[in-house]
Protein backbone atom coordinates (compact mmCIF):
# COMPACT_ATOMS: atom_id res chain seq x y z
CA UNK A 1 0.00 0.00 0.00
CA UNK A 2 2.73 2.59 0.85
CA UNK A 3 4.46 1.72 -2.45
CA UNK A 4 1.23 2.42 -4.37
CA UNK A 5 0.78 5.80 -2.62
CA UNK A 6 4.40 6.71 -3.38
CA UNK A 7 3.88 5.74 -7.04
CA UNK A 8 0.73 7.86 -7.32
CA UNK A 9 2.46 10.80 -5.65
CA UNK A 10 5.40 10.52 -8.05
CA UNK A 11 2.99 10.34 -10.99
CA UNK A 12 1.17 13.45 -9.79
CA UNK A 13 4.43 15.37 -9.43
CA UNK A 14 5.50 14.26 -12.92
CA UNK A 15 2.14 15.30 -14.39
CA UNK A 16 2.33 18.73 -12.79
CA UNK A 17 5.94 19.21 -13.81
CA UNK A 18 5.28 18.42 -17.47
CA UNK A 19 1.92 20.17 -17.77
CA UNK A 20 3.39 23.43 -19.05
CA UNK A 21 6.11 22.01 -21.30
CA UNK A 22 4.15 22.42 -24.54
CA UNK A 23 4.43 18.76 -25.56
CA UNK A 24 1.88 17.72 -28.16
CA UNK A 25 1.12 14.54 -26.19
CA UNK A 26 1.16 15.63 -22.55
CA UNK A 27 1.26 13.07 -19.80
CA UNK A 28 -2.14 12.84 -18.16
CA UNK A 29 -2.70 11.81 -14.60
CA UNK A 30 -5.31 9.30 -15.81
CA UNK A 31 -2.69 7.73 -18.11
CA UNK A 32 -0.28 7.45 -15.18
CA UNK A 33 -2.98 6.03 -12.93
CA UNK A 34 -3.80 3.42 -15.57
CA UNK A 35 -0.13 2.49 -15.83
CA UNK A 36 -0.08 1.99 -12.05
CA UNK A 37 -3.12 -0.27 -12.18
CA UNK A 38 -5.50 2.28 -10.69
CA UNK A 39 -9.16 1.80 -11.44
CA UNK A 40 -9.95 5.47 -10.96
CA UNK A 41 -11.50 6.99 -14.03
CA UNK A 42 -11.03 10.54 -15.12
CA UNK A 43 -13.96 12.80 -14.64
CA UNK A 44 -14.68 15.15 -17.51
CA UNK A 45 -13.33 18.64 -17.19
CA UNK A 46 -15.85 20.84 -15.42
CA UNK A 47 -15.96 24.45 -16.63
CA UNK A 48 -15.75 27.16 -13.98
CA UNK A 49 -19.14 28.30 -12.70
CA UNK A 50 -20.73 31.19 -14.52
CA UNK A 51 -21.06 34.42 -12.55
CA UNK A 52 -24.24 34.50 -10.56
CA UNK A 53 -26.86 36.84 -12.05
CA UNK A 54 -27.65 38.00 -8.53
CA UNK A 55 -24.02 38.92 -7.79
CA UNK A 56 -23.75 42.67 -7.17
CA UNK A 57 -22.08 44.79 -9.78
CA UNK A 58 -18.82 46.43 -8.91
CA UNK A 59 -19.24 48.23 -5.61
CA UNK A 60 -19.67 51.99 -5.73
CA UNK A 61 -17.47 54.30 -3.71
CA UNK A 62 -18.93 57.35 -1.95
CA UNK A 63 -18.03 59.81 -4.74
CA UNK A 64 -19.68 57.57 -7.35
CA UNK A 65 -22.84 57.47 -5.22
CA UNK A 66 -22.94 61.28 -4.94
CA UNK A 67 -22.31 61.58 -8.69
CA UNK A 68 -25.18 59.15 -9.37
CA UNK A 69 -27.51 61.17 -7.14
CA UNK A 70 -26.50 64.36 -8.99
CA UNK A 71 -27.10 62.61 -12.34
CA UNK A 72 -30.58 61.65 -11.05
CA UNK A 73 -31.39 65.36 -10.93
CA UNK A 74 -30.98 66.03 -7.23
CA UNK A 75 -29.83 69.55 -6.30
CA UNK A 76 -26.28 68.88 -5.12
CA UNK A 77 -23.48 71.43 -5.13
CA UNK A 78 -19.97 71.65 -3.67
CA UNK A 79 -19.47 67.91 -4.12
CA UNK A 80 -16.29 66.78 -2.38
CA UNK A 81 -14.63 63.46 -1.72
CA UNK A 82 -12.95 63.27 1.66
CA UNK A 83 -9.55 61.74 2.37
CA UNK A 84 -7.80 61.06 5.65
CA UNK A 85 -6.79 64.71 5.88
CA UNK A 86 -10.28 66.13 5.27
CA UNK A 87 -12.47 63.54 7.01
CA UNK A 88 -14.15 65.49 9.84
CA UNK A 89 -14.86 62.29 11.82
CA UNK A 90 -11.45 60.63 11.47
CA UNK A 91 -13.11 57.33 10.54
CA UNK A 92 -11.84 56.94 6.97
CA UNK A 93 -9.79 53.77 6.62
CA UNK A 94 -9.86 52.99 10.31
CA UNK A 95 -11.17 49.73 11.84
CA UNK A 96 -14.97 49.80 11.79
CA UNK A 97 -14.89 53.08 9.87
CA UNK A 98 -15.83 53.80 6.29
CA UNK A 99 -13.76 52.94 3.23
CA UNK A 100 -14.83 56.08 1.39
CA UNK A 101 -16.73 59.28 2.19
CA UNK A 102 -18.11 62.14 0.13
CA UNK A 103 -20.30 65.14 0.88
CA UNK A 104 -22.35 67.78 -0.88
CA UNK A 105 -24.37 70.87 -0.14
CA UNK A 106 -28.15 70.54 -0.43
CA UNK A 107 -30.81 73.27 -0.36
CA UNK A 108 -32.07 73.36 3.22
CA UNK A 109 -28.64 72.58 4.64
CA UNK A 110 -26.65 75.22 6.51
CA UNK A 111 -24.56 77.14 3.96
CA UNK A 112 -22.23 78.24 6.75
CA UNK A 113 -21.99 74.80 8.33
CA UNK A 114 -18.63 73.12 8.79
CA UNK A 115 -17.08 72.08 5.50
CA UNK A 116 -17.83 68.40 4.64
CA UNK A 117 -20.30 68.09 7.54
CA UNK A 118 -23.84 66.77 7.50
CA UNK A 119 -24.97 70.28 8.47
CA UNK A 120 -24.41 71.37 4.86
CA UNK A 121 -26.75 68.69 3.51
CA UNK A 122 -25.52 65.30 2.38
CA UNK A 123 -22.89 62.78 3.43
CA UNK A 124 -22.31 59.38 1.85
CA UNK A 125 -20.27 56.79 3.72
CA UNK A 126 -19.33 53.38 2.32
CA UNK A 127 -18.23 50.62 4.69
CA UNK A 128 -16.38 47.33 4.27
CA UNK A 129 -19.25 45.39 5.83
CA UNK A 130 -22.99 45.75 6.27
CA UNK A 131 -22.48 45.34 10.02
CA UNK A 132 -20.18 48.38 10.14
CA UNK A 133 -22.73 50.46 8.20
CA UNK A 134 -25.52 49.28 10.51
CA UNK A 135 -23.48 50.15 13.60
CA UNK A 136 -22.67 53.64 12.29
CA UNK A 137 -26.29 54.41 11.40
CA UNK A 138 -27.54 53.10 14.74
CA UNK A 139 -24.91 55.09 16.68
CA UNK A 140 -25.85 58.34 14.92
CA UNK A 141 -29.61 57.83 15.25
CA UNK A 142 -29.33 56.80 18.93
CA UNK A 143 -27.17 59.84 19.69
CA UNK A 144 -29.59 62.20 17.93
CA UNK A 145 -32.53 60.74 19.86
CA UNK A 146 -30.72 61.24 23.17
CA UNK A 147 -29.47 64.74 22.30
CA UNK A 148 -32.28 66.26 20.29
CA UNK A 149 -30.60 69.65 20.25
CA UNK A 150 -28.23 68.16 17.62
CA UNK A 151 -31.09 67.84 15.14
CA UNK A 152 -32.14 64.92 12.97
CA UNK A 153 -30.98 63.05 9.91
CA UNK A 154 -32.58 60.94 7.24
CA UNK A 155 -30.67 57.70 6.64
CA UNK A 156 -31.09 55.80 3.39
CA UNK A 157 -29.49 52.55 2.30
CA UNK A 158 -28.77 51.50 -1.25
CA UNK A 159 -29.21 47.93 -2.48
CA UNK A 160 -25.59 47.45 -1.43
CA UNK A 161 -26.32 47.79 2.29
CA UNK A 162 -22.71 48.86 2.92
CA UNK A 163 -23.66 52.32 1.60
CA UNK A 164 -25.11 54.79 4.10
CA UNK A 165 -26.61 57.97 2.63
CA UNK A 166 -27.15 60.62 5.31
CA UNK A 167 -29.29 63.69 4.66
CA UNK A 168 -29.69 66.55 7.12
CA UNK A 169 -33.07 66.67 8.84
CA UNK A 170 -33.30 70.34 7.86
CA UNK A 171 -34.25 69.30 4.32
CA UNK A 172 -37.99 69.44 3.69
CA UNK A 173 -39.70 66.03 3.81
CA UNK A 174 -40.88 66.36 0.19
CA UNK A 175 -37.26 66.89 -0.93
CA UNK A 176 -36.07 64.02 1.30
CA UNK A 177 -38.50 61.65 -0.47
CA UNK A 178 -36.76 62.47 -3.76
CA UNK A 179 -33.41 61.51 -2.24
CA UNK A 180 -34.91 58.31 -0.87
CA UNK A 181 -36.31 57.39 -4.29
CA UNK A 182 -32.97 58.05 -6.00
CA UNK A 183 -31.02 56.00 -3.44
CA UNK A 184 -33.28 52.98 -3.97
CA UNK A 185 -32.22 52.91 -7.65
CA UNK A 186 -28.51 52.58 -6.81
Automatic annotation (TrEMBL):
Signal peptide positions (record): 1-19
Compositional bias per record (Low complexity), positions renumbered to this chain: 34-44
Start and end residues of each stretch annotated as Disordered: 24-58, 79-111
Pro residues composition bias: residue spans: 45-54
Alphabetized UniProt keyword annotations: Signal
Presence of the UniProt keyword Signal in the record: yes
Protein name per the record: Lipoprotein
Species per Swiss-Prot/TrEMBL record: Phytohabitans aurantiacus
Amino acid sequence: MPRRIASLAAAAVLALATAGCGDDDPVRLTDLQASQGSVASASPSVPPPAPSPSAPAEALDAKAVVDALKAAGLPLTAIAEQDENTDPNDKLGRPGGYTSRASADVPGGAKNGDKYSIDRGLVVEVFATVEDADARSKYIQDTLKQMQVLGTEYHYRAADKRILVRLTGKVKPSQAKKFEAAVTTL
